[in-house]
């Protein structure tokens, strides 16, 4: 059987923290499972659809983990790894590493406007059709971006593969960095994808689009962007409809949404999801990657099959992100004990603030505790007070003082800071009175 096995993953967010808690060890653990899965499933190539890092300026530790994992995945150039920039990544940083990664079998794509296109990727040969290939020496020359330079079309020919693979590479690009366009952004991008698709010669080979965008379907519930994610729906952008993806593509590998999603469409349009639960509003569901199996069926005919693979087996005990609410100290203590093995965001809604001693005890009992103070109940209790001054001066100062101590290991805010805080409150009160007088 002539079959090519690909692994689609995205949204690693290496270096991401949860409040004051680092998560690099968890990321390293789950990426070890990814390497094992690639071996077990005889994967021929890995597609990483953006948000490699959580920051455009990642820590050395995050960069080291990326290098270690991708080098192991690439197996000395035997298994190509294609890495695309997402909206969290620095395109320039990825492009700078392209000459490092190519001999190892790792293709780094931050942009396609000013970086060279290598002719080899480990054991594989690369044939660039769109934009025209740029030599290594030309990468040092300043070039003007053209519409086509935001998208690349490359064919990978590997001596161990039954047939070549074609990729349309479309890294994240902010619409505000584009030249002036007179049509919707998603329509403009579709034109670029169609141009790249048309650049491939006959005979046909399986063609995949690798991109990092927000997709919406008029026939399905709207996908929620993760609360920890930088939104791609700004400035009136509503997302890419399924019709934006041109015919002639066999599979669309997406990054950005942290939950696995396969859209119902004539071609598979798929979010693989993130490798870990990164926010408290992300359901603690199983995290997965997608195995894409491409089978040759006659001359220039290919069948695409999808298989979801869990990154965690049934025996794995992984810390989840749990969010709970408490109105009494006793209730808070019970929750701390119940979710001791997980990250717990405890939202305090009591009618009084926790004392410093109570907060200290809760933190001692739970190593992954995040206290979140919601002063609404306290404010509601003071709302009937005859003194608005009490509401402003007492409750808000109390909340601020408790919050400062929570994030500063129990240290009291210094007097000068509290004085500035009171000045801000007084200024806000004066503006509120002024607005009320104008309305009257």
Structural write-up:
This protein has 440 residues and is an alpha/beta fold. It folds into two domains: 3-310, Purple Acid Phosphatase, chain A, domain 2, CATH 3.60.21.10; 321-439, no CATH class. It contains ten helices and 21 strands. The strands form five sheets. The chain has an eight-stranded mixed sheet with strand order 7-8-9-10-11-14-16-15, covered by helices on one side. Helix 1 (24-40) runs parallel beside helix 2 and helix 9 runs antiparallel to helix 10. The chain is elongated. The protein starts with a strand and ends with a helix.
Q: Which spans of ≥5 residues are poorly predicted at pLDDT below 50?
A: 134-148, 376-393
* CATH fold-level name of the largest domain: Purple Acid Phosphatase, chain A, domain 2
Count, helices? 10
Coarse morphology? elongated
What is the highest CATH level, the class of the largest domain?
A: Alpha Beta
What level of helicity do the residues show?
Answer: 25-40%
Name the CATH homologous superfamily of the largest domain: Metallo-dependent phosphatases
Give the total of beta strands.
21
Please state how the strands of the largest beta sheet are arranged side by side. 7-8-9-10-11-14-16-15
Radius of gyration of CA atoms, rounded to a whole number: 26 Å
Query: How many domain regions?
Result: 2
> What would CATH call the architecture of the largest domain?
4-Layer Sandwich
Assembly type of the chains comes to single chain
Sheet having the most strands: 8 strands, mixed
Strand content: 15-25%
The structural class is alpha/beta
């Amino acid at each position: 059987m002539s079959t090519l096995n690909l692994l689609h993953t995205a949204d690693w967010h290496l270096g991401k923290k949860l409040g004051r808690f680092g998560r690099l060890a968890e990321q390293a653990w789950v990426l070890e499972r990814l390497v094992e899965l690639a071996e077990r499933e005889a994967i021929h190539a890995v597609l990483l659809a953006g948000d490699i890092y959580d920051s455009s300026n990642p820590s050395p530790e995050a960069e080291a983990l990326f290098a270690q994992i991708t080098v192991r995945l690439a197996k000395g150039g035997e298994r190509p790894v294609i890495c695309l920039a997402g909206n969290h990544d620095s395109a320039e940083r990825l492009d700078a590493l392209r000459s490092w990664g190519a001999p190892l079998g790792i293709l780094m794509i931050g942009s396609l406007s000013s970086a060279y296109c290598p002719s080899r990727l480990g054991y594989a040969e690369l044939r660039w059709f769109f934009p025209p290939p740029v030599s290594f020496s030309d990468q040092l020359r300043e070039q003007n971006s053209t519409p086509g330079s935001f998208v690349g079309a490359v064919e990978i020919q590997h001596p161990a593969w039954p047939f070549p693979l074609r990729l349309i590479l479309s890294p994240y690009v902010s619409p505000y960095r584009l030249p002036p366009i007179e049509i919707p952004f998603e329509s403009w991008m579709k034109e670029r994808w169609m141009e790249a698709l048309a650049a491939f010669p006959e005979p046909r080979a399986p063609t995949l689009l690798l991109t990092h965008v927000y997709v919406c379907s008029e026939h399905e519930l709207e996908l929620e962007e993760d609360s920890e994610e930088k939104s791609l729906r700004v400035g009136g952008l509503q997302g890419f409809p399924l019709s934006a993806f041109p015919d002639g593509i066999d599979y669309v590998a997406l990054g950005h949404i942290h939950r696995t999603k396969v859209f119902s469409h004539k071609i598979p349009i798929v979010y693989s999801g993130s490798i870990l639960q990164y926010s408290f509003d992300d359901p603690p569901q199983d995290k997965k990657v997608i195995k894409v199996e491409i089978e040759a069926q006659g001359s220039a005919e290919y069948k695409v099959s999808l298989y979801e693979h869990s990154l965690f087996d049934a025996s794995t005990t992984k810390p989840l992100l749990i969010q709970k609410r408490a109105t009494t100290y006793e209730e808070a203590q019970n929750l701390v004990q119940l979710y001791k093995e997980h990250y717990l965001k405890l939202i305090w809604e009591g009618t009084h603030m926790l004392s410093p001693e109570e907060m200290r005890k809760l933190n001692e009992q739970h190593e992954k505790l995040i206290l979140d103070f919601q002063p609404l109940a306290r404010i509601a209790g003071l709302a009937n007070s005859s003194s608005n001054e009490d509401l402003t001066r007492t409750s808000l100062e109390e909340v601020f003082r408790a919050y400062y101590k929570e994030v500063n290991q129990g240290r009291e805010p210094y007097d000068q800071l509290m004085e500035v805080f009171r000045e801000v409150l007084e200024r806000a009160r004066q503006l509120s009175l002024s607005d009320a007088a104008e309305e009257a």
